Amino acid sequence: SSPVLFWWLLCHCVSYHLTYYAVDQKLCACTKCLSEDKQLLLDRSNRSVQPFLTANLNLSENEFNWWKRLQTESRSFGVYETTVANFFKIFPRNPDVIQPKPDHCRTCAVVGNSGNLRRSHYGPLINLHEVVIRMNTGITRGFEKDVGNKTTHRVMYPESAVDVDDNTHFVLFPFKIQDFEWLINASTTGFTGRSYMPVKSKIKTNKDLVMVVNPAFMKYVHEVWLGNKGRYPSTGFMALILALHICDEVNVFGYGADSDGNWSHYWEILTNKGLRTGVHPGSYEYNIIQQLDQQQKIKFYEGLTKKM
């Protein structure tokens, strides 16, 4: 229906067939595989940093001490280790990540919540991706034409959490020990604690599809990708770097300011016109996304209302 969608489909089909016959030399069946991009590895991407926690992955005390400052965690490293051990008694000990294959192209759409998605008509294109990562409360109902309705992974923290269906991965971005405790309790007996914002007592999620981002990965994104700018990276930026580690091809939607220069959400009418990016280095993150697009590491669909 849309010219953008037609050309994306055409290029993707042609590239898939051209590369399929050279699969014995390639790690994936995309035109370009992120995992084969030596320059990206040399520049910033450190594949030795595991994106997700597993039951056997130990956080160093140095990494813990960096992480505990994000939201002034007062409890000890030992409490963290005990809590994480309890977490993996309930949730999968290893994350459900699609592994690279020479005859397969893992396409990922990372869908932010920017107001620049309005009237973009990107919905059908977003739905074509194998993995569709959305953030926090990003609504699809009523906005399908612009944002699609497929969600395979929803990145959240307790204060931003919404119920997810049985086929969607709940990807927890933990900022404090209580975030692990919250998900343990909210998905079982109910959570009764308090946070800086109201949190849901119960959450609907498929326990077999829960994944938790490694605090060391968050530290790596802040230090290596952002040069320690801002207090810590935004959820959206961390989700994008996460996609670079688990996908072969990454397409990015819904990042950056709207047509008025405000950092608004596509589903709401903005009343606070002075809204910016808080503790996150929003403009710096946005520039990195543009650089990755210019270097053809990702494809960035900027939306139709971007301020020029």
Properties at a glance:
alpha/beta, sialyltransferase cstii, chain A, 7 strands
What does this structure look like?
- Helices cover 33% and strands 9% of the residues.
- The chain is an alpha/beta fold and 308 residues long.
- It has a single domain (3-301), classed as Glycosyl transferase family 29 (sialyltransferase cstii, chain A, Alpha-Beta Complex), CATH 3.90.1480.20.
- It has a seven-stranded parallel beta sheet, sandwiched between helices.
- Helix 6 links the parallel strand 2 (131-135) and strand 3.
- Helix 3 (61-68) crosses helix 8 (215-225) and helix 4 packs parallel to helix 7.
- The two termini are 27 Å apart.
- Residues 16-24 have low confidence and may be disordered.
List the helices and strands and how they pair.
Layout: H1 3-20, H2 38-43, H3 61-68, H4 77-90, E1 107-111, H5 123-127, E2 131-135, H6 144-147, E3 153-156, E4 169-172, H7 177-186, E5 210-212, H8 215-225, H9 235-246, E6 249-253, H10 282-294, E7 299-301
Parallel strand pairs: 1-2, 1-6, 2-3, 3-4, 4-5, 6-7
Helix pairs in contact: 3-8, 4-7
Task: Please estimate the helix content.
Answer: 25-40%
According to CATH, what is the topology? sialyltransferase cstii, chain A
Number of domains: 1
CATH superfamily: Glycosyl transferase family 29
What is the N-to-C succession of helices and strands? HHHHEHEHEEHEHHEHE
Structural class: alpha/beta
Shape: globular
Strand arrangement in the largest pleated sheet:
5-4-3-2-1-6-7
* Mean pLDDT reading: 86
**What's the architecture in CATH terms?**
Alpha-Beta Complex
* Main beta sheet strand tally, sense and closure: 7 strands, parallel
- State the oligomer: single chain
- Terminal Cα separation, in Å? 27 Å
Estimated radius of gyration: 19 Å
Tally of contiguous helical segments = 10
CATH top level is: Alpha Beta
The share of residues in extended strands comes to 5-15%
The residue ranges in which pLDDT falls below 50 over 5 or more consecutive positions are 16-24
What is the strand tally? 7
Disulfide bonds: 108-247
EC number: 2.4.3.2, 2.4.3.4
Membrane topology: Single-pass type II membrane protein
Enzyme class: transferase
